[in-house]
Amino acid sequence: MPPQDRHPETETSPTGRVILGMLAFGKTTGYDIKQFVDSSTRHFWAASYGQIYPELKRLEEAGLITGREEPTGGRPRTVYELTDDGRRALHTWLASTTPPLYELRDEGMLKLFFSDTLPERRAENIRQMRERHELKLQQLKAIQPHAATGPLGPRMTLELGLGITQCFIDWCVQAERRLANDPEIN
Amino acid sequence: MPPQDRHPETETSPTGRVILGMLAFGKTTGYDIKQFVDSSTRHFWAASYGQIYPELKRLEEAGLITGREEPTGGRPRTVYELTDDGRRALHTWLASTTPPLYELRDEGMLKLFFSDTLPERRAENIRQMRERHELKLQQLKAIQPHAATGPLGPRMTLELGLGITQCFIDWCVQAERRLANDPEIN
DNA sequence: ACAATCATGTAAGGGGTTACATGATTTG
DNA sequence: CAAATCATGTAACCCCTTACATGATTGT
Q1: Contact A110/B151, CB-based, under 8 Å?
Q2: E strand or H helix at A68, and its extent?
Q3: What residue in B sits closest to A14 (Cα-Cα)?
């Protein structure tokens, strides 16, 4: 990821923006954010505790969020909220026209790209890719009912994720058929 | 990217594997590899000079490749080749069944996910995503004639890339239509 | 002569993951 | 009472990008 990725107008890191958005969504704690990310944005934007907790502190220092202690019994717990500045920063980002970052790293495709070095493994590589995406499809379908009643944004990204994944699988199936029908095409 | 990403059997980093593959493809220098990556694997696996040159040295130290000086006139130039160990490592990786890494970071989708926070920007966000992918489609189409005569692997990844990108664009067009027809769906 | 291309590299810094550590509370 | 869940955090490490620096050669 580019280091100059901090948004020029909001001065937050990419994951910082995820946190701002999640707080706008009514998420409360670092734990809460992490759970929700894992069941929603994970397929196009992941986040780990090691990123979330330090970032929450940075955002508070920057005055974009405020946290207050709200222990559940004896269990410590910090509940965060957007400040006015934080909401402004979120809106600025959402309205910005700087080209949005897009980054893909797909080792399956890399193997396929080099498959002429070891052609007898090509079909197996494609099968592996297909299975991976079939699993992903199942995971996306699992969160579908939960998203169906919510706001349009999450519904749309889920729909898009399903479409792309299905497209991927369809291509694999077709390619597997082509290789099976004509094993000599090398 | 996971730190434990170094392949258990080949002991190379992801980009190290790209380099091994590129050398098997007959690429010669760091510069040559970089040029080719930019016109082939870039859409699913990028690499920068800051990664390539140090990695070439590491791979040579590991005995997977050998370099010899082959200056063009007074211009220094190091030409690399796979060793037998290097080719073995490449084959081991291509034949490995460990689940291939897949990582996506799409800021456009992230904006769409949070678009209920600023619904009046939603259509614009989708338009932005579409334009980005239309540009990518053009770039992929530009390398198509160049790949058409080559080996199957690169042809397949290009085809897959085109398919996915087209799928993305189609979804955007459809979503834009839906929003235009019914601006109240929010 | 100038620009584009060939060619190699380094330093600083960003963003991220994993693994580990700790402990309270709820549920079966 | 044990297991799962809620909850917070840190340290080590990795991978990668950008920006910078340098210089020769080729094409116009």
Answers
A1: no
A2: strand A65-69
A3: B107
